[in-house]
Amino acid sequence: MQNTAPVVAANAKARTVTILGSTGSVGKSTVSLLEGHRDKFRVRALTANKNVALLAAQAKSLSAELAVIADESLYGALKEALSGTGIKVAAGHQALIDAAGAPADWVMAAIVGAAGVESTLKAIQQGRTVALANKESLVCAGPFMMEAVRKSGATLLPVDSEHNAVFQVLDPAQSAQIRRIILTASGGPFLRKTRAELANVTPEEAVRHPNWSMGAKISVDSATMMNKSLEIIEAAYLFHVKSEQIDVLIHPQSVVHSMVEYIDGSILSQMGAPDMRTPIAHTLGWPQRVATTGDRLDLTKNINLTFEPIDIERFYAIKLARQALASGLGYPTVLNAANEVAVEAFLARKLAFSAIESIADQTLQKVKIGPISSLTDVFALDREARAIAGKTLAALK
Ligand code: NAD
Ligand code: MG
Fold first, then answer.
1. Is 219 near ligand 1, meaning CB less than 6 Å away?
2. Is 67 in the pocket of ligand 1 (CB under 6 A)?
3. pLDDT by residue, tens only, the chain of 397 residues
4. Burial class (CB within 10 angstroms; exposed 0-12, middle 13-18, buried 19+) of 160
5. Is 361 strand, coil or helix?
6. Which of residues 140, 159, 178 is at a domain's end?
7. Residue of the nearest CA to atom 18 in ligand 1?
8. Which ligand 1 atom sits closest to the C-alpha of 115?
9. Residue 159 CA: which ligand is closest?
10. Atom from ligand 1 closest to the CA of residue 213
């Protein structure tokens, strides 16, 4: 029988979306989700740093209105790649910030590192619904981000799988009755290695995560456990809880993505296959749900769920995060900046893996942190921390 339903005007009720950092790991997962729901979403803007070919292909596939390349020197290449498509092209830092602020119903903040602070903040200041993958922007400038959320009425939805899990099981009406938040950590590729065995691990070994496929920086952070450290700080700002209320448990299977324990002893968790499309879809559909086609968790397949306490002498980065949070405004900014410098050096084979946390530790001790009353102060401190981390690194040679 022929379908006689009236033809609905294409995209009649489509929501508009923007992806900041569409060519990265989270960005690509977001694009793939949108490709499965072409009728429901219209793409306002896609942005990337340097990957012209992929950005152009994504913009064509999703019929984006605008493609922005942050590296200004690549404007011509992007313009050429999209010529004849009708897709607008822009380049440079300001164009990226403008794209972040352009009207959209949902903005995915998936740039890596503190490089994502300004664009994430711009979307927040416009009162958008912001899906936050870029945890470093919160670690670097958390109190200012949260203040901007309050002022603008923006909706901030966590994409990080742990925080998304907590968000899913944390009933705001019961937030005063939370005993603790339990972040789970896979332990990364070196969970069973001793500190001595870590001395000579290579970037290739460090980015080979056992459960998740992710960008290089976060993969190294997972191997040092700095990722969990950044996530403790992220959780403290997002959920307004103290460091003491955030526990970390090693859970090598990455099935339970995190938990909330209430004062009556109930522990609520969110589970799923380790696939970022699930938390991304949760934020894309929120407060409804969006279907995904990825692997499903089959609970009959003999899933053995194990949880272990974390050894903070072995994973020293966790200690640094707790110290930074306890020390107050500015310390998390310094920790994040120093870690970014150290990870970049490690990936460029200019620093030993085991020295990453030591660069972070030394930078925290060396930087003089004055009063921080504005984002300008945060950016100045970020630059200062990077300079000191760079000098500390150079002195190691
Ligand atoms: P990635 O390195 O794969 O991608 C980074 C994206 O940011 C790319 O599109 C790149 O072009 C863009 N970018 C990088 N530097 C830029 C700059 N200076 N200016 C403008 N754009 C720039 O990173 P990823 O793994 O997708 O991670 C993105 C963010 O999401 C990170 O903050 C990470 O911690 C967080 N996150 C990632 C995962 C994951 O599974 N990959 C999970 C949880 C959280
Ligand atoms: Mg995470």
1. no
2. no
3. 344 333 434 445 799 999 999 999 999 999 999 999 999 999 999 999 999 999 999 999 999 999 999 999 999 999 999 999 999 999 999 999 999 999 999 999 999 999 999 999 999 999 999 999 999 999 999 999 999 999 999 999 999 999 999 999 999 999 999 999 999 999 999 999 988 898 889 999 999 988 888 999 999 999 999 999 999 999 999 999 999 999 999 999 999 999 999 999 999 999 999 999 999 999 999 999 999 998 899 999 878 999 999 988 889 999 999 999 999 999 999 999 999 999 999 999 999 999 999 999 999 999 999 999 999 999 999 999 999 999 999 998 7
4. buried
5. helix
6. 159
7. 115
8. 18
9. 1
10. 40
Residue 323 domain-assigned (yes or no): no
Token reading at 310: 């974390």
Atom 39 in ligand 1: residue holding the nearest Cα = 214
Our answer on whether the CB atom of 218 is closer than 6 Å to any ligand 1 atom is: yes
Q: Is residue 229 part of a domain?
A: no
Q: Hey, what are 290's tokens?
A: 């969006």
Residue 315 phi/psi, 5-degree rounding, is -105, 80
Residue range of the domain that includes 48: 15-159
Q: Is 279 close to ligand 1, i.e. is its CB under 6 Å away?
A: no
Cα gap 232→242, rounded to integer Å: 9
Answer whether residue 319 is part of any domain. no
Cβ–ligand 1 distance for 272 under 6 Å, the answer no
Q: Is the C-beta atom of 97 inside 6 A of ligand 1?
A: no
- Residue 390 sits in a domain whose CATH number is 1.10.1740.10
How remote is the CA of residue 169 from the centroid of ligand 2, in Å? 16
* Both structure tokens of 67: 């493609």
Q: Is the CB of 27 under 6 A from ligand 1?
A: yes
Last residue of a domain, one of 114, 130, 159: 159
Inter-residue contact 20 to 99 (CB < 8 Å): yes
Question: Domain total for the chain?
Answer: 2
> Has residue 266 been placed in a domain?
no
Q: What is the CATH number of the domain that holds 137?
A: 3.40.50.720
